[in-house]
Amino acid sequence: MNIFLNENSVTKCSIDEYIREIDCPVQKTMIEHLFFDAMEFLETIRKSALPYPDKPLIKITKGSTQFLQAIDGLIEIDTAFIQLCFTNKEAPLNEIINPTLIGEPSIKSTPNILFCWALAHEYYHGLRKHNLATYDISTTELTSHALEMDADLCATAALYRWAQTNISSIYCDTTIRKIVFASIFWGINTLPKSESNETHPSHAVRIYQILSKLIQIRQDKYHPADQSLSTEEARNNLSKMVDFMHECYVHYLAQDEITAKKIIGEIFQHLESGEYKLVIREWERIKTLVSICSGTRT
DSSP readout, 43-99? Predict the structure, then answer.
């Protein structure tokens, strides 16, 4: 998910133009729902920012890269990424998540959370003015990783709040956190380039940071995230969500044993070595600049 747009990319079209070209009625309807949910989610993000930014402009590129890219209010989505989200095997939420409270219904279906989360990730690159921040800092691998982490965690927090708004009358807070984490866990592991590279941290580091965010974020949106785990709420989240990550790992083994073992092994390797903290330290160095550029809190 690159920050900068390739101005020479292949032919671009609008969402409506892309959908009109789909011949299969069933696929057309499903992709209409895919975009409807994602655009509804992006609108909640837009309306949470003050002053309201412009609505994002979505362009579809007809390629095969399975990536998205964005700058400011423009997001480009490759058709190969849409097909990836449309066809990939989503998290078996009913199998992983046991009802936390008596009376919670089984989890039958959710929006395509990978697609929603990925678009939000790109939207936040624009809202947080990451492209402007890079003009004033030396762009290193760690800097790129820190900006990707910021987009990941902003998108995760927004997704949790969106789910909270829509299903908190049906599911308890712990179940909502599990739905969000499992869906992103499954989704990230379907993306290419799982190893760390010059622009993105490894999938394992990204999953670990997302888990941390879902542990620290408070149920009450008016309370700041508890990064020091000083509250009983955060400590309870820690216990429940770490155990749940292991449940996700056990279930993912049945789907892709090699990836599951690699991801969970790398997560614990980073935990033991503290290497993932390099990304966090780099974020601490640049977050004030991102805040100034974007006019948002960091």
Answer: HHHHHHSSSPPPPPEEEEE-SS---EEEETTEEEEEHHHHHHHHHSPPP-HHHH---
